[in-house]
Design goal:
This protein has helices at about 35-50, 80-95, 130-140, 145-150, 165, 190-215, 235-245, 260-270, and strands spanning about 1-5, 10-20, 20-30, 55-60, 75-80, 100-105, 110-115, 115-125, 160, 180, 220-225, 250. By secondary structure, the chain is an alpha/beta fold. It folds into two domains: about 1-80, Nucleotidyltransferase, domain 5, CATH 3.30.420; about 95-255, Nucleotidyltransferase, domain 5 (2-Layer Sandwich), CATH 3.30.420.40. A five-stranded mixed sheet has the order 3-2-1-4-5. The chain has a five-stranded mixed sheet with strand order 8-7-6-11-12. A two-stranded antiparallel sheet has the order 9-10. The chain starts with a strand and ends with a helix.
Amino acid sequence: MIIGIDIGSTTTKAVSIQGGRVIHKIKTKALDAVTSATGAFGKMTVENGIKIGDIKRIMITGAGATKLKNDLFGIPTGLAGEIESIGIGGMFLAGRDNIIITNIGTGTVIIEARSDGISHLGGSGVGGGTILGLAKKLLSTSEFSDIMKLAERGRLNQVDLLLEDIMETDLSFLNKESTASNFGKMLDGARNEDIALGLLNMVYQVIGMLSVFAAQRRNTGKVVVTGNGSKNLIGRRVFGAITEIYNVGFEYPEDAEYTTAIGAALSWERNL
């Protein structure tokens, strides 16, 4: 059994891999990298009755991985590159290689994953952290569940300038409901619900368009979406609207939020 641990800036995820299958997966939160890694490992083993002797290796990746200098609990422990881990995990979950992966976490990274190599195509500081940071200032909350509840009741035409606000007809392949400017209208009567929806719409439009550019650059019509942000249902709706315009589809593999931890665990055998 191999344990993969992804130490993120807000959440740490861990998985166990055995026989080419994901057996267990867990999440934890902690203030520092060592506490995150040891806490995730302890939670994984205790809750699932895993014996130390059954674990062949621990592979760690993510923002805090380099702060761990020694083996954990006497088990051989190695570091896996984050980009490589996303690529390996993404190919594993998608069930194929030669794919574009958009990994949405605190920020966003876009990579190309092939059987003969994994490359970083680009990314953005726009991601889940952007939503939380702006919501803390604009909505007085940084709880993602609260932001989502507000956004579900929001109306974009209260905050975004739409094409219908400035034109009487569609513009080329864009319809009148398309965004001309995120937060370009911002009516005095806009509610927190409208602002929350505007935040989500803005972030996912940026990520979606960067993904389209990457897919077009590599002549593919599919993007595999991974990371915590892959679960966001409003974000998926935004991506769906982008698909209708640009004919680039977005896929959401099961367990996509654990992609990086899965890739870290699988990277050891891949590089033997």
